[in-house]
Amino acid sequence: MTPAWWRGLAPVQVEVECSGTTHQVLWADGVVRAPNHPEAEVERTLATLAGERIACIELTDIWARHRADLRVLALTSRGPADLITLRPPGQFPGGPRAGPPGRAGRPVPSPPAGAATWSRVSMLSTAAYATGRGPQIGARQRPPMGGGPFDDPLIRLLTTGGRLGDRLAAQVAAIWAERLATGDPSAGGKYPALSAALYGRASAAVRAWLGDPRIDVAVEMIPATERPSISRGESGITAALPFAWISEVWTPGLAVLLGRFTLRTLESDHRHLVLETVGSGLGPTRALTIGL
Amino acid sequence: MADPVEAELYLRRQAERALQQGEREGPFGGTVSTAATALVAVGALTREVAAEVMADHSLALFLRERGAPSFHSGQGVGVVAALNPPRVVACDAVIDLPAGQLTVLYVALRADSTIIAVSGDRPMTHLPGNPFPQVSISDDQGQHGMAMFSGSEGAHGIEGTLEVSPGLARNTSWLDLGGSRIPLSPSAPAEVSVSLEPLPQQEPALAHLWRQIAGAHRLRGVGFHGPGPDLEGAIDALAAVDAVDRDSPELAQVRAVASALTGQSLTGPLPEPWQTLIQNARRSPDQRAPRTAALGVATPAIDGVVVVIEAVTWGRSGLTARVEASPAIALGGAFSALGVERLTWWAEDDLGGVYLGGVITSQTRPEYSAATVEFWPALDPLARELRLMPTGTSHRAVVRVALAAGTGP
User: Fold this and answer.
1) Closest partner residue to A74 among B8, B20, B56, by Cβ?
2) SS3 assignment, position B181
3) Are B38 and B80 spatial neighbours (Cβ–Cβ below 8 Å)?
4) Which of B5, B8, B56 sits opposite A71 (nearest CB)?
5) Which of A165, B77, B98, B233 is deepest in the core (most CB within 10 A)?
6) Cβ-contact A11, A103 below 8 angstroms
7) How far is residue B247's CA from residue B63's CA, in Å, rounded to a whole number?
8) What is the CATH number of the domain that holds B373?
9) Which residue of A has its CA nearest to B9?
């Protein structure tokens, strides 16, 4: 069974200045919600009639409009070393809370110490993002701008903080992986954008894995039915990966584990995860099993 | 014909590399815009697709606080206006202003502004709190305004223009400039003829590369002032879509010229007109006061670009032309539009000399740009005729100017 694309992704909460107070917008299990607006449809209609804006609902609407927008993959982070540091001039201030909350605001329990589980690995990875390590939290607020890039709703969402943009990227990647797998004709004309999105993420992961930011990395996008591979040649590294590698491997933080590069998921259920991995010597692949 | 999918993929991967390598897109572009421009120039990619990739890349850099977003790359040609040549009157009047004594070289009376080209032997006297001179100006029909100076000031004196906008009466018989009256009597027009010529056919990729060299707006003095165009970036993009053979002798010539322009010694003869141009590159301007040929002529459309040449000036500040062009983007500057090639500015004299110009100052308005084009090397002092050749992608105009008084001693 293919795991849900959001599995392994910690919930995200952002604070939004809305209706004169601070609200929360939550993402969890693949869904973005505005819990302070339980009657969102009614409120949306009333706000439209009154010519008013409801920031929380705007944010969820932007999400819905861009959930399959490939521009998201062109703009969002390519990995832990590539952070979106810009903050908006005031549309959705607030940013991430100190830790990843659970659904409906419940705190997420800390994983048991020493539990070498997939949850822990991915939790640590995403928690590091969500707590804004590095320049994320301290990014300066810019003065309000008249017009310009912040007129683009997508830019406002991506600069909201709290990794909401990364969760949107995860959704976009999952949708397009599904479209490719089912032979959706809309995927045909998007080959360059899809291939470049894979190239950017895979090449960054390979360079980080090998500790060589300048090494040449060629990435070939292969059909999901073909076996992925990675090898070293005279001119650098060549990887053959399906687009679904983004959703299945890269998004949940599994690209590099224990010094090994992950090519694909071999098995996955609610108790364990088996990954096909390669060591830095680029020798034969080995299965890496993680108990959950 | 190159595969547009391969071309788009190349450009998108180039954007990914630039993002990973920490590149910042400067005001004059970067590797992505270099590749995009090349791919559009040879028809491998549509302007719309290239603009989309560039806009996304620009926003990606903006999100990482690595530059302001630039949307100009996706703009189209812009408005093309029918330019009316100004009335240009050659002068040789000396006026005394509080800032110093200036010689008026010519007056250009445009529909929207009046320009007085001036030079001076000594640096200006700057009044406290007023670093740029303003001069009251009026015409014989009672219109008046304040003309603002812009130009350069150095050890050799000043060169520049006084401009007032809106313009004064085009048919005025005199201008009063700070109390000095300048007669604008009808004078014998400069001997000038204008024609349009097709350019020899050339491979689109090679033509693009030659234009990159000739059109580099930092081209000054004896070569590139600054890093010059990213020729290898353009070649990589063109080779990726099989638009150019990396080992072709023509490409070797392009590289040899670019190398010579960055100050490397020549290892063999260069193709013309570059050989002649570079041979004479170190000729210094003569040190006499500037002289002017007042032209006020419009060219036929050069690949869709309309050009007006107001005047040509030569002397101690070198050889310059004041020009206007529509659409504004054709004169380049910091902004460019995909699929819109800037004009390149070649010139020849009657002695076989070759000159190449670059825009050194420009003012952009919605419908046109006005600019000063500086040519190098300095004008041959024995030349009696100059042919200015604003050059497009398939045609060039030839504006033939008799240097009536001669330039020699």
Assistant:
1) B56
2) strand
3) no
4) B56
5) A165
6) yes
7) 40
8) 2.60.40
9) A192
Selection from B406, B338, B335 nearest residue B364 by Cα: B335
User: Of B154, B183, B212, which closes a domain?
Assistant: B183
Contacts of B3 in chain A (CB under 8 A): none
Which residue of chain B is at minimal alpha-carbon distance from A205? Answer: B20
Runs of H (alpha helix) within B262-381: 274-279
B20, B56, B63: residue with CB nearest A86:
B63
Q: How close A84 comes to chain B (CA, Å)?
A: 5
CB contact under 8 A, A191 and B5: yes
Q: Do B56 and A75 touch (CB under 8 A)?
A: yes
Task: List Cβ<8 Å contacts ≥24 apart for B203-206.
Answer: B203/B244, B203/B250, B204/B41, B204/B42, B204/B43, B204/B243, B205/B38, B205/B41, B205/B42, B205/B238, B205/B243, B205/B244, B206/B244, B206/B250, B206/B251, B206/B254
Pick from B12, B15, B63: which is nearest to A159 by CB?
Answer: B63
User: Higher pLDDT residue, B198 or B260?
Assistant: B198
Q: Show the tokens assigned to B260.
A: 């010579």
Q: Say what the ipTM of the complex is.
A: 0.81
Cis ω on the peptide bond leading into residue B249 (within 30° of 0)? no
CA of B46 to nearest chain A CA: how many angstroms apart? Answer: 14
Residue B207 in any domain: the answer is no
Best of A70, A75, A210 to disrupt the B interface (most B CBs within 10 Å) is A75
Q: Which residues of chain A are modeled with pLDDT < 70?
A: 1-2, 88-147
Q: Do A204 and B60 touch (CB under 8 A)?
A: no
The domain in which residue B341 lies consists of 192-198+281-402
Contacts of B20 in chain A (CB under 8 A): 78, 82, 200, 203-204, 207, 213
- B65 and B93 housed in the same domain: no
Residues of A in contact with B57 (CB under 8 A): 74
User: Cα(B303)–Cα(B306) distance, rounded to whole angstroms?
Assistant: 9
- Taking only the tens place, the pLDDT of each residue in B85-118 is 899 998 888 888 777 788 899 999 988 899 999 8
What the block records as the tokens of A83 is 């952070």
Number of domains in chain B: 3
Angle of CA points B27, B64, A215, to nearest 5°: 90
On whether residue B370 sits in a domain, the answer given is yes
Q: Please report whether residue B311 resides in a domain.
A: yes
State the helix-helix crossing angle for B4-20 and B231-240, rounded to 10 degrees: 140
How far apart are alpha carbons B152 and B360 in whole angstroms?
11
| pLDDT in the model for residue A286 | 96
Mutating which of B8, B11, B16, B236 best tests the A interface, going by the most A Cβ atoms within 10 A? B16
Residue B262 lies in a domain: yes
Q: Are residues B249 and B309 in the same domain?
A: no
